[in-house]
């Protein structure tokens, strides 16, 4: 059997339990990174190079970590990011995340390549005010993509996150050593025919993604939706500035959980240069252009480091997958509550009663960056 849920004391603990319950194919797909996994490890270690500068003797009796993402309330500066193939881990797949997000007031990003149908995920909302975003892989057949976007908009989705770091899926060799067995995983919005199952899950599901996607396509995207558009997978200040100048709603500084280009830098490292460049052009701070970060966020201290450096919120992927693989939606609720308790304590010890008080001076990033 598995340990009772209350023995999971932090987000790392879910990974240990999940490894014992997941099928080897599912574990390989969820846990793998690209090539030598240098970037995947760096996502975790980069946070270890940032130190706090806490302030004392401030009134920290009441702590408030609520915030707003693209104009939508969130109980914490954290959202559940898109991860494909949710049913590899649990028969209810992504619905586990929807239910937990709704109960705890977080926003869930629905993946294009979910295992549950889009309608199932929308119908699993726990109340009418629950907010969801949609992660988009642009199909070579633009008509299919337009349909998906319209469907999301009709369902009240509040933000479109276009993945721009995956014109080809990276080599995740752990995953490639497995044959993709899609019984039960039931991937949505992918090519159903002519898939090669011999090279793992990622290869089998991704052949429809359009590698010719370019900046020129963003005008088309803007013309087919009123949803705010955010680019997911930005890795340089140059591209972040271009996104801001185009009037997009934001960027996610992300290397796709270390699953795409190995030796890309961590999102938290990129954040420093992005904020600096936007500031120099009077594009930051700007409530109409928000910066998100994902990759390796496991503790509230990681969340607060990103917020201090200028991020509006951060995305978390694998820990929530592991939490529901082991414990269903209760596991995800527990993971979110652990993070909330850490947020409260960390903000109190930092001397920051609200997120506005989490300022750049609260972090020492001298060891972070090489520039
Ligand atoms: C992902 N990620 C991802 N991103 C995306 O835009 N579309 C997708 O379909 C997927 N699928 C996916 C599957 C799995 C199993 C993982 C682990 C990740 C990337 C994801 O949105 C996010 O960038 C990372 O997961 C963040 O890193 P952590 O929190 O997992 O370390």
Automatic annotation (TrEMBL):
Q: Provide the reaction this enzyme catalyses.
A: (S)-lactate + 2 Fe(III)-[cytochrome c] = 2 Fe(II)-[cytochrome c] + pyruvate + 2 H(+)
The coiled-coil regions, if any, are none
Q: Where in the cell is it found?
A: Mitochondrion intermembrane space
Listed A to Z, the keywords are: Flavoprotein, FMN, Heme, Iron, Metal-binding, Mitochondrion, Oxidoreductase
Q: Example GO biological process term?
A: lactate metabolic process
Q: Which GO terms describe its molecular function?
A: heme binding; L-lactate dehydrogenase (cytochrome) activity; metal ion binding
| Cofactor list | heme b; FMN
Domain FMN hydroxy acid dehydrogenase residue range list: 3-368
At the top of the EC hierarchy, this enzyme's class is oxidoreductase
Record-listed E.C. numbers:
1.1.2.3
Domain of life where this protein originates:
Eukaryota
GO CC list: mitochondrial intermembrane space
This protein's assembly is summarised as: Homotetramer.
In which family does this protein belong, per the annotation?
Answer: In the N-terminal section; belongs to the cytochrome b5 family.
Protein name, entry field? L-lactate dehydrogenase (cytochrome)
Organism name: Pseudozyma flocculosa
Q: Which residues of the full protein are shown?
A: 98 to 468 of 498
């Amino acid at each position: 059997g598995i340990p009772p849920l209350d023995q999971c004391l932090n987000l790392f603990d879910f990974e240990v339990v999940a490894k014992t319950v997941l099928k080897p194919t599912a574990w390989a797909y969820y846990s793998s990174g690209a090539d030598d996994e240098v970037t995947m490890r760096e996502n975790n270690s980069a946070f270890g190079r940032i130190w706090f500068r806490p302030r004392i003797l401030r009134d920290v009796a009441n702590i408030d970590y609520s915030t707003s993402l693209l104009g939508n309330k969130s109980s914490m500066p954290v959202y559940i990011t898109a991860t494909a193939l949710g049913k590899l881990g649990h028969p209810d797949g992504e619905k586990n995340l929807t239910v937990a997000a709704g109960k705890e007031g977080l926003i869930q990003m629905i993946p294009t390549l979910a295992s549950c149908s889009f309608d199932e995920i929308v119908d699993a909302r726990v109340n009418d005010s629950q907010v969801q975003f949609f992660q988009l892989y642009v199909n070579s057949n633009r008509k299919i993509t337009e349909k998906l976007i319209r469907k999301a908009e009709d369902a009240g989705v509040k933000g479109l996150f276009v993945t721009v770091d995956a014109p080809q899926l990276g080599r995740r060799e752990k995953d490639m050593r497995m044959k993709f067995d899609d019984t039960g995983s039931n991937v949505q919005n992918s090519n159903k025919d002519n898939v090669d199952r011999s090279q793992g899950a990622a290869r089998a599901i991704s052949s429809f993604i359009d590698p010719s996607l370019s900046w020129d396509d963003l005008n088309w995207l803007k013309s087919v939706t009123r949803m705010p558009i955010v680019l997911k997978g930005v890795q340089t200040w140059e591209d972040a500035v271009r996104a801001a100048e185009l009037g997009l709603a934001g960027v996610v500084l992300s290397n796709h959980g270390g699953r795409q280009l190995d030796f890309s830098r961590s999102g938290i490292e990129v954040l420093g240069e992005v904020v600096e460049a936007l500031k120099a052009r009077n594009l930051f701070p700007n409530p109409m252009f928000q910066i998100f970060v994902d990759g390796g966020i496991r503790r509230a201290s990681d969340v607060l480091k990103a917020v201090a450096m200028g991020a509006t919120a951060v995305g978390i992927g694998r820990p929530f997958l592991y939490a529901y693989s082991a414990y269903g939606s209760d596991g995800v609720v527990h993971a979110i509550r652990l993070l909330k308790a850490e947020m409260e304590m960390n903000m109190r010890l930092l001397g920051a009663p609200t997120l506005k008080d989490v300022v750049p001076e609260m972090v020492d990033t001298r060891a972070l960056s090489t520039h």
